[in-house]
Specification:
Helix content is about 35%, strand content about 25%. By secondary structure, it is α/β, with parallel strands linked by helices. The strands form five sheets. A six-stranded mixed beta sheet has the order 5-4-7-8-2-22. It has a six-stranded mixed beta sheet with strand order 11-10-9-19-20-21, sandwiched between helices. A hairpin with a 6-residue loop joins strand 20 and strand 21. The longest helix has 20 residues. It is globular, with a radius of gyration of 25 Å. The two termini are about 25 Å apart. The mean pLDDT is about 95.
Length: about 475
């Protein structure tokens, strides 16, 4: 991920970084071989400052500054215990005996619900050369692990089987990277009626595209091993049966004036099937400008009012302001109107290399108990996700207030460490997928040896 670490992440190891508020926690600050600022055995003043409550000079009624005298340990670091009272960021600020600031280290206290969840960063919408992308599925997966992602989905247009190809490519090596099955769903026209709304099936256990005739069936046939995660899926429908089913749904639909019937009933049918498949149905990029707005504003209004989807792709796909900007404004205006729906951010990437300007533009942080498909989906549905905009060097987050604040802290103070640990795993994944037999064997041995590093980082930096 394109987040540059602060010098303190290079010069000092502070752990834990995240912990429960209201519970006494033991903290450690250890120099990492750079310039040591604290003399072993010397006494210093530690001021613990609550970020959100103002300074005592200006807001004495709310400010939370606590001062202690503390002695540097034999390594020029510190070990101490403290209880933090409320969910927010705090500074561990060190002063000399004259009161001059030497350094400070940010940490974060969370309430019990977040203390049961780790932050996982990833992408819920991207493509390979099995549809209109540039690289094969296994290489796309390796590249995004090298970028620091914890999870991703291959969501090729009209095709579910490329996501299975990526999963199978690494089935014999231990990874802490979660490759989720999925697809971008485009059902066929009925007569001259089209449904142009783009929908992502994230994590569904079977393909919605392959329920009737289309590219996936033309390429792989109706064998369930290409249509499902576990070899089980609904029966295949001939195109005539699909057409009649949609015409019947349109005849029964009670729609507002000005809403096209086929897109309305088709979208609901798709989202319902994704849920039946235990997936997450994502309403993708309505303000993408493809000649004109990809989805008319009136139709987007209708979907936001009826909410047949599980999550809204508030960020992703393009770098011009209109797409993500309009979608973000809509999200916050909907919140003001009392409409609440989960959100995600995705690259909609078609080229996974850093040389592509769209390869790292957006992502999602999901706060989940584990990096597992069902846990990620449930956590998004339970509103534990934020969308991350990295189109410019200064990241921006979209989501609910407490998660945005927490996400900002993590992007600065945890993910740079996490991402550095992912680089070599991603490189070895690509070597395993594309190398010679000797290179594959070496990559597998090294991946096996390094397995578990992210779990150890979580245990160290999150005192849950």
């Amino acid at each position: 991920m394109p987040f540059k670490p602060d010098d303190n992440l290079v010069n000092y190891d502070v752990y834990p970084k995240v912990f429960r508020c209201g519970k006494k926690t033991e903290f450690h600050i250890r120099p990492l071989g750079g310039r040591v600022e604290f003399v072993p055995g010397e006494k210093y003043n530690l001021v613990i400052c609550a970020l959100e409550q103002g300074s005592p000079e200006q807001f004495p009624c709310t400010a939370d500054f606590k001062k202690f005298e503390i002695t540097a340990n034999e390594m020029g670091g510190f070990d101490f215990e403290h209880t933090f009272e409320s969910e927010q960021q705090y500074f561990l600020r060190f002063l000399d005996q004259e009161g001059k600031r030497i350094n400070q280290f940010p940490v974060y206290a969370v309430e019990d619900d977040l203390a049961a969840r780790y932050p996982f960063i990833g992408d819920l919408h991207m493509h390979t050369n099995r549809s209109d992308g540039r690289q094969i599925p296994s290489v796309v997966a390796a590249n995004y692990r090298r970028h620091g992602y914890d999870f991703m989905v291959i969501s090729d247009h009209r095709r579910y089987w490329p996501s299975l190809e990526a999963i199978v490519a690494y089935k014999d090596v231990p990874l802490e990277f979660n490759i989720v099955p999925g697809e971008e769903v485009h059902m066929p026209p009925v007569g001259n009626m089209l449904n142009a709304v783009h929908i992502v099936n994230f994590g569904g256990e079977y393909s919605v595209n392959a329920l009737t005739e289309g590219d996936a069936i033309a390429e792989k046939g109706t064998d369930p091993k290409y249509r499902s995660l576990y070899g089980e899926c609904p029966d295949f429908m001939p195109k005539e049966e699909y057409d009649q089913m949609m015409r019947d749904l349109m005849a029964k639909a009670d729609l507002p004036e000005g809403i096209d019937a086929y897109p309305a009933v088709c979208c609901k049918w798709i989202f319902d099937h994704i849920r039946k498949a235990n997936g997450l149905g994502i309403f993708a990029h309505p303000t993408w400008i493809a000649n004109v707005l990809h989805v008319p504003e009136k139709f987007t209004d209708y979907l936001m009012e009826t909410q047949p989807f599980d999550a809204f792709e508030v960020l992703g796909g393009e770098r011009y302001f209109e797409q993500n900007g309009y979608q973000t404004v809509r999200y916050y205006e909907d919140r003001a109107k009392g409409r609440r729906y989960p959100i995600v951010g995705s690259t909609d990437s078609h080229n996974s290399y850093e040389s592509s300007p769209g390869s790292l533009i957006c992502s999602t942080i999901i706060f989940a108990p584990e990096n597992e498909r069902k846990a990620l989906i449930a956590s998004v549905k339970d509103f534990y996700s934020v969308a991350v905009d990295t189109i410019s060097p200064e990241f921006r987050l979209v989501g609910e207030n407490r998660l945005v604040r927490y996400g900002c802290f993590l992007l600065k103070n945890y993910f740079p460490i996490h991402d550095a640990a992912c680089i070599e795993e991603g490189r070895l994944m690509k070597l395993y997928a594309t190398g010679t037999e000797d290179e594959k064997a070496e990559a597998k041995a090294l991946l096996t040896a390094m397995h578990g590093r992210i779990g150890r980082l979580q245990k160290k930096y999150f005192a849950f």
